[in-house]
Design goal:
By secondary structure, this protein is α+β, with helices and mostly antiparallel strands. The protein contains four helices and five strands, in the order βααααββββ. It has helices at about 10, 25-40, 45-50, 60-80; strands at about 5, 85-95, 100-105, 110-120, 125-135. Strands 1-5-4-3-2 form a five-stranded antiparallel β-sheet, covered by helices on one side. A hairpin with a 4-residue loop joins β3 (about 100-105) and β4. It is globular and about 45 Å long. The chain starts with a strand and ends in an 11-residue tail after the last strand.
Length: about 140
């Protein structure tokens, strides 16, 4: 399993980054993650990361390094399993008006990769504090009674 995660650095590194743009509502967050996934499906990994960069609530350098690592990783994935087919929204989770998490599934012919985006709202705008992807999709199953 490959997992790259920018861990809630905004909580540990004060003023690590200031967002150039604003995401004032959860609808905007969803639109941005949807746009990110559209670029990922088009194999534009670096561009996908760049479009979320203005909304960072974490240090830019580790985020940019994660983008480079993701681009390299997905190049190898595409060589092994082919191009991505589609993306589907799996779930949205929130903790009050403070944290918002969007989970998406990137689908391939013989594999799937889960992407998770975590946003934090310290004041009036949502800031991206985590992006991760994983081949472990087991946690995406719901345990309904």
């Amino acid at each position: 399993m490959r997992l790259f995660l920018i861990v809630l650095l905004a909580l540990f590194v004060p003023n690590a980054a200031v967002a150039d743009g604003t995401l004032s509502d959860k609808t905007g967050v969803h639109r941005h993650t949807e746009a990110f996934m559209a670029q990922v499906i088009d194999n534009e990994i670096q561009a996908a990361y760049r479009q979320l960069r203005p909304h960072l609530g974490v240090a830019a350098e580790p985020y940019d390094q994660s983008a480079t690592e993701a681009a390299d990783y997905f190049e190898r994935v595409n060589e092994r399993v082919g191009a991505p087919l589609a993306a589907s929204h799996v779930r949205t989770e929130t903790i009050g008006d403070d944290f918002h998490r969007e989970t998406w599934l990137q689908k391939f012919e013989t594999a799937a990769i889960a992407w998770t985006f975590t946003f934090y709202r310290p004041r009036d705008a949502w800031k991206l504090v985590g992006v991760s992807y994983s081949t472990d999709i087991e946690p995406l199953y719901r345990r309904d009674q």
